[in-house]
Amino acid sequence: MLKCPRCGKEVSSRPGTICPRCGLKVSENNMKIRCPEQNCRAVVSKKLEYCPKCGCKLRGYKLSELVRMARNKIDETFYEDKE
Ligand SMILES: [Zn+2]
Ligand SMILES: [Zn+2]
Hints:
Elements: E1 2-3, E2 10-11, H1 26-29, E3 32-34, E4 43-45, H2 63-79
Antiparallel strand pairs: 1-2, 3-4
Bound molecules: zinc ion (ZN) (2 copies).
One zinc ion (ZN) binds next to loops.
């Protein structure tokens, strides 16, 4: 059992549990993940975007960021011998 962070009602800690009193998705809100940084490995809330301990990015890159990174890489390779 865990407590609903919004209203304090005790609810099941199973994944996908919704607080019967206020309707908050409790387990999703309390989900913890481990920092991917090798020397850090802090357990942090899944809601956070950056690790509060080491400051690394916790969430995966957005698709647009990946595409941009891939483009930059291609540009670098493509223009390499022109300079
Ligand atoms: Zn609640
Ligand atoms: Zn970290």
